[in-house]
Amino acid sequence: MKKIIFAFVALFFATFSYAQIEGKWKTIDDATGQPKSIVEIFKKSDGKYYGKVVQLLIKPANANCVDCKDDRKNKPILGMEVIRGMQKDGATFTGGTITDPKTGKTYKCNIEREGDKLNVRGYVGFSLIGRSQTWHKVK
């Protein structure tokens, strides 16, 4: 009986931790396929998830987000909060936004975790019209 309870508890915690997105993730450049930056995703006291650039692996043409339209305009990309306001909805994180510091554009965002990978989808309007990236867990 103890083995069954232990197995159930272990399975519960494995399932619970599987859908978490907190931690450091390596982003990949769409054009070159090379690692571009490290984004750390964390949960704030409001219960929502945010992500900021903690390391640049490719030097950008401009170290600041010159094309951003909001409070991030002309702010350094390193340390910039690029993911804002994500909420957990089952296995998906949604309801927030993601900003591309290269273009300054902000998109609605969905994130799903598959093992050591995050499927990050930014879109305008509805999810069918958008762009997806796969981010890799930093160990």
Automatic annotation (TrEMBL):
Which intervals hold domain DUF2147?
A: 23-137
InterPro entries (alphabetical): DUF2147
Determine the domain of life of the protein's source: Bacteria
Q: Where is the signal peptide?
A: 1-19
Keywords from the named record: Signal
Family annotation (PANTHER family): BLL5882 PROTEIN (PTHR36919:SF3), BLR1215 PROTEIN (PTHR36919)
Tell me the protein's name. Answer: DUF2147 domain-containing protein
Q: What are the leading ranks of the lineage?
A: Bacteria, Pseudomonadati, Bacteroidota, Flavobacteriia, Flavobacteriales
